[in-house]
Amino acid sequence: MSTENRKLINIATAGSVDDGKSTLIGRLLYDTKSLTTDKLEAIERNSKQKGFDYLDFSLATDGLVAEREQGITIDVAHIYFNTEKTNYIIADTPGHVEYTRNMVTGASTSAAAIILIDARKGVIEQTYRHFFINDLLRVGHVIVAVNKMDLVDYDQQVYEDIKKDFEGLIEKSNYSEDQVRFIPVSALHGDNIAGGSENMDWYQGPSLLDYLEGLEIDESEDNSAARFPVQYVVRPKTDAHHDFRGFAGKLYGGKLAVGDEVTVLPSFTSSKVESINFFDQEFDEAIPGSSVTITLEDEVNVSRGDMLVKSNELPKSEKQLSATICQVNSKPLRTGAKYILQHGVNQVLAKVDSIEGLVHTDFSGTEGTDQLKLNDIGKVNFRLSKPIHFDPYQESKSNGSFILIDEGSFDTTSVGFIQ
Amino acid sequence: MKNTFVPNPKEAESIHIIREVAAQFEKPVLMFSGGKDSITLVRLAQKAFYPAKIPFPLLHVDTGHNFPETIEFRDKLVEELGLELIVANVQDSIDQGKVQEERGRYSSRNSLQTTTLLDAIEEHKFDACIGGARRDEEKARAKERVFSVRDDFGQWDEKNQRPELFDMLNGKIHHGQNVRAFPISNWTELDVWEYIKTENIKIPSIYFAHKRETFVRDGMIWTASEHVYREEHEQVEERMVRFRTVGDMTCTAAVLSEAETLEEVVDEIRASTISERGARIDDKRSEAAMENRKKVGYF
């Protein structure tokens, strides 16, 4: 092991405006003693200046002048805190207008999501959208935090009713009941955030932090196949390493071991793993998430964008694909448009063949459309200049997703999940 | 028993990013200040390309007011690892009349660095600058992308950033633009210190407790030096201090400390109730000091 390996959990928060997201995050930071004195003092000072009689934790997360001016979150903020066992990264996504795009961005790297519900309002349209996106992106764990319980007198019935409503959503989704956890909280007063709640003795479950600490995050993507996209060819050409030719990349999916039979894509040539190197050490095998350098037994042609896979676990190799697209740019996606499609570290040209339909985020189905506008989610068919080597998104997040890049502006316009 | 490589997720992510920079850009450079974050970047870059050498040079924007210990460390590191170092001097920008030395009580060359940096980027045609900024440092930095596109004036448009999805990085830029790349965006200060400790990475001596001639102003401990403006009543005293963050002398305050080893430093950081940038005089100028510097080309 190369360093002190704490477990790492990426979390995305989702909620509407004013449902207490920033307060919840601030409370988590405060209760885990992650807010330093100077930051806390700044929050106290600014809260007082604004005439609040409570601490406005959003001041800790809204980093831009425009955000503080308007009192809204414009862009994703990343918030970090550590406990003894775990490193946490929270993507605090805005609840405002551009919600879908930002939520997808935040959720793409997250293993767990916290969906906030205002106890007074219950399940609303926004909640559908939040849950739908987590479902679409296959975020492993969802925590439904029923917040502002203090404003409903900590009434168990209110919580149970919301839970029951939400369970109706779970039935429509790909989630199983055990992937979704309900916790009644008051972020403002700290009930069930990092500790228990005297006000809700009827709730016997873990606090939010206890639940997060106990989460088992499965990096292996449900036993998916080993995928090793080559980022960089390492050729030192020094006296000590004259013939060294290593393929540097990050391993996704399954394990890779010395001696494994591998196929190089797109050339479909085969070889065996000769060595797995990390810095000045050699290893017998690597697990998913390893940024290692691999050498092969044979002199095969491998360059950036190629992929090493186990010979008995080939992905699909195709020039046509169907994907669910989320549009993250204001320039709409239209039939016939050409893009640079980036799949992992590989880029090919792609043309939109047809748009099958717009997907409703309330689980109510699709409707026909000729374009996808900003924040739209739709089903799209593409034709590619060269085949890519992919798995369906539900089998492999890394090998089943891609981004589209506009050829003129070079902006990232869309994200795709391959069916 | 099988010798299985178990990755540190943050280290693996950083290496992935550094390799993407090397692969996607023509002329990358690593911005090196001699501080702990850029030293960590150098180690990560070593690991990313080992056994080959780091395939890009280091760039130090030298204000001329640096701690001599940092400069000495920088030159030794470059020599040991056989790296190429480019030094861009703020003094040159002053001599050429491009920037003006600040005067008075809070005079610092810190903000002058931006001009020198942008000139160096233009002169060497760098299209990607790797920096050691972390999102936990400062609230404006928390908003920055891993690949942050800058226009040919070096400007950051905070309202028009490319979304970053999964770990796919879009480094496509137009001629004249450049990307600031931040491989350790997701690290915390404690992550950096723990990494330096477990990897046993050498760092400049000023990070450890030592005796130094200092004076106190605005509740901060300033270094007594010819480069730092001081009024007569501000009395110089020898104190046992160390530095938690290292910029140049005019913008970095010391902290009282007895921590002499890496273990003691890590323990001190863990127990600290003050954030790292609490000791950065440059951030105290206003609520939006960092954001405003970044908009005009600071990293």
TrEMBL record, chain A:
Keywords: ATP-binding, GTP-binding, Nucleotide-binding, Nucleotidyltransferase, Transferase. One of its GO terms (molecular function) is nucleotidyltransferase activity. InterPro entries: CysN_GTP-bd (IPR041757), CysN_II (IPR044138), CysN_NoDQ_III (IPR044139), G_TR_CS (IPR031157), GTP-eEF1A_C (IPR054696), P-loop_NTPase (IPR027417), Small_GTP-bd (IPR005225), SO4_adenylTrfase_lsu (IPR011779). Residues 6-221 form the Tr-type G domain. Pfam families: GTP-eEF1A_C (PF22594), GTP_EFTU (PF00009). The keyword Nuclease does not apply. It is an enzyme of class 2 (transferase). Its EC number is 2.7.7.4. PROSITE patterns: G_TR_1 (PS00301), G_TR_2 (PS51722). PANTHER family: TRANSLATION FACTOR. NCBIfam families: CysN (TIGR02034), small_GTP (TIGR00231). This is sulfate adenylyltransferase.
UniProtKB/TrEMBL annotation, chain B:
Pfam families: PAPS_reduct (PF01507). GO terms for molecular function: nucleotidyltransferase activity. Residues 28-253 form the Phosphoadenosine phosphosulphate reductase domain. The keyword Nucleotide-binding applies. It comes from the Bacteria. Keywords: ATP-binding, Nucleotide-binding, Nucleotidyltransferase, Transferase. The keyword Nucleotide-binding applies. Its EC number is 2.7.7.4. Belongs to the PAPS reductase family. CysD subfamily. This is Sulfate adenylyltransferase subunit 2. The lineage of its organism: Bacteria, Pseudomonadati, Bacteroidota, Cytophagia, Cytophagales.
